Amino acid sequence: MGLREDLERFREVGEERRQDLAEFIQYGDLGGSGPDSVRVPIKLVDLPEFQYDKLDRGGVGQGDAEPGDQVGEPEDGDGDGDEAGDESGDHEYYEMDPEEFAQELDDRLGLDLDPKGKKVVEETEGAFNDTARRGPRGTLDFAHLYKQGLKRKIAMDFDEDYVAEALRVRDWGVDEVFEWAREQNVPVSRAWLAERERSVDDPDHWASIEEMEAELDAEPTQARIRRGGAGKVPLRREDERFRHPKMVERRERNVVVVNIRDVSGSMREAKRELVERTFTPLDWYLTGKYDNAEFVYIAHDADAWEVERSEFFGIRSGGGTRISTAYDLAEEVLDDYPFSEWNRYVFAAGDGENSHDDTEENVIPLMRDIDANLHAYVETQPTDGVQTGTHAGKLRDAFGEGDGVAVTTVTEPGDVMDAIETILSTEDNDET
């Protein structure tokens, strides 16, 4: 292996040593990524290089100069030299789009959310797979018509010579042969038997029907068709079917995500960071799963208001807490995103504190009224804090499994992956 191959191999090893996805979500720098590009740090390895042996001062290429002495005259470079570079090396990060991120997170958590499209954005003619009883003659499905006629012919067919032979049984006439044929499930009519009886010779040829059956065998219908062909196949108008193209609907997979965060005075930096580490990967994941994803960010203390994403995780107020105000605003916002056309998620986070009776009297009824694929509440309670909130516990009591509501508690970054798994695995895929 040459030096060039060595260098490429070391670069590949570096990329393979990309920071583990769970480690990145829980402890990495999420701020370096954007809405459409997730930048995961690479644990670089040192590339091989040659170094001089400084223990030996002699040898070719070494002289008596001291460190720092100028060697030769300086020369002008190709650039102007006025500014230093301001871009980081691409090799320091592995960049993935949200689709790749979502796939890797599915693989990591053993999930596979399969969102359904709701809004019809295009209707086109597909293959001629549908049929109707009426239509232009040029679209007649003759193969279907012939097949139905052939089925009818086979169902009504019988060995005429064999049945006619029963008319030669001693003392048997049309009535006796007709009853015998019916017992044998032979679809023969009295009129046909009466017609054949006129041409029967030697009417006492067989002493009994048992003697005839012992001497003769009826030829199966399939054998007669193979030998002589299908012959005349009865075609009936009632069997006609006319082919037309199946209309194919393309449904766009749209999603709106409402992220709600408590920004009251009790939500200090450690709690805010836990919210960011939980909500940001969820945003990437849903962006990767849907054709069109829109996000709404609502901050609240005792009142609620919309904010930009850049403000959402850092804002802090000094007011109290009334969570229902955020759900009131979320319900108003979601009026622009009909549930019949949009998949909807409502994610809220806080430290579990809420004003007296607001959870039972307002928040829980609002969560039941707001149609969504999934409601989730993330309680952030760092281990070094005193837990005083009761909101999460009341939600757990109100919503059982299968209600499309996920409630989880995050006490440290190491809990984030479990919280994300709880949220995503709670969704009912029948509603997506």
TrEMBL record:
Xref: InterPro entries = UPF0229 (IPR006698), vWFA_dom_sf (IPR036465)
Q: Where is this region: Disordered?
A: 54-92
Q: Where is the composition biased (Acidic residues)?
A: 72-87
What is the protein's name according to its record?
Answer: Uncharacterized protein
| Organism of provenance | Halobacterium jilantaiense
Q: Output the lineage of the source organism.
A: Archaea, Methanobacteriati, Methanobacteriota, Stenosarchaea group, Halobacteria
